[in-house]
Amino acid sequence: EVLEFCRYWEEHKEELPYDIDGIVLKINSLKQQRQLGFTAKSPRWATAFKFTAEQAFSVLREVEVGVGRTGNLTPVAILDPVELNGTIVGRATLHNYDQVERFNLHLGDHVTLEKGGEIIPKIVAVDPTKRHSAAQKIKPPQCCPSCGTSAVRFQDEVEWRCPNSECPAQQKEQILHFVSRRAMDMDTIGPALIEQLMTKNLLQNAADLYLLRHEDLSGLERMADKSAANVLSSIEKSKKCELAQFVHALGIANVGEKTASILAQHFGTLERLMSGTPDDFEKVEAIGPVIAESIIDFFQDQRQRQLIADFLERGVSPAEVKILEIVDSPFSGKIVVLTGTLSEPRDVWKKRLIQAGANVTGSVSKKTDFVLAGENAGSKLEKAEKLEVAVIDETTALNLLEQIS
Q: 186-194: long-range contacts (C-beta < 8 A, 24 or more apart)?
């Protein structure tokens, strides 16, 4: 019955006054929702039924190369405009040059398009039977389109990169990331303003934002006195920020918003994070060797250290995260995973364990210290037993909590 409902609306979605790409199915019982709880990313009592993506057909005319904030060179397909899901599509992501090679793409190829999640267009198929015999094969770039530096590809990496840390395109993307809503949240600063400031040599990196004056801004195109004041106010407001916010804004490779939050919670201060060793990162749940290496390399880079010093000197002040420390707690510093049906809501147990100094996570790994298992525990319990992780019940957990002094 549920599947029939989903399939009906997949066929009749055009009748709705809004666009949808699927249906979310939820258990209609708050009690059962509490019993099922959450994984690290989503509730167990809800799932998504995604509709089959609509397709369109077009011709590949050109491949542009975009430069990311870490220097990655990303191919973007330029296509004959075509309608897809109610919008005109003329560009599509190709992700990387391995993807280009898998499709054996040539200029002039006839391609099939879909919208990933009904939002981002992508090429999903190529028709080689329609290819011209003299068609030019798409190859990785030999140099960066922005600064002309020879492109490189490091071992075990998919992306081709521009290795020039002074590349203008990289710097622009880094500044855009720094001011973005999920980073330092300077909503008055966009690509056009950054472009103008860089052209006038008023902005070379994100730290230069904190040197801007009213007279620097007021003479720019479409920048009245009030707009200039709003920009400066946004910059000033950003100086008082959360540590996780600042760490994310730095743009460390492999460190997104969630990882930045984990790092801030674990280390508490920017100083402690910057001096972290491989052993320190080994103790942090969800931080593997690749991420740890990225963080350590970033903070050992003298250019990055100078940039951070400039931020601090110019008034940026990431707030210290207060880390709860419990003396003589059996759970202090321990990684705990909850599984199965517990006698109390999981949120109650999670709060109780965090107050006792534990780090409660959603998945079992070699780093897990305890698995608190209730009734009908499933795959997490099996994995814990396989990894020889200590498994405790609620009674044992309560007894351990009573030992806190």
A: 186/231, 186/234, 186/235, 186/238, 187/234, 188/227, 188/230, 188/231, 188/233, 188/234, 189/231, 189/234, 189/235, 193/220, 193/223, 193/231
- Are 357 and 331 in contact by the 8 Å Cβ rule? The answer is yes
Residue of 288, 286, 292, 376 lying closest to 335 (CA atoms): 286
Residue 86's domain comprises 54-164
Is residue 192 within 8 A of residue 172, CB to CB? The reply is no
- Phi, psi for residue 280 in degrees, rounded to 5: -65, -45
Question: Does residue 131 sit in the same domain as residue 160?
Answer: yes
CATH number at residue 252: 1.10.150.20
The pair of structure tokens assigned to 216 is 């620097």
Residues 139 and 198 in one domain: no
Buried/exposed code over 303-320 (b: 16+ C-beta within 10 A; e: otherwise): ebeebbebbeeeebebee
Same-domain status, 310 and 362: no
Task: Single out the residue in 115, 143, 164 at which a domain terminates.
Answer: 164
- Whether 329 is in a domain gets the answer no
Residues 81, 157 within the same domain: yes
Residue 285 to residue 359: CA distance in whole angstroms: 8
What's the rounded Cα separation, in Å, for the pair 83 and 79? 12
For the chain of 405 residues, list the mean pLDDT of each consecutive stretch of 10. 90 85 90 75 83 90 95 96 90 93 97 78 94 95 97 90 94 97 95 96 97 94 92 98 96 91 91 95 84 96 97 97 67 89 85 80 90 88 91 91 74
Q: How would you class 31 by CB atoms within 10 Å of its CB: exposed for 0-12, middle for 13-18, buried for 19 or more?
A: exposed
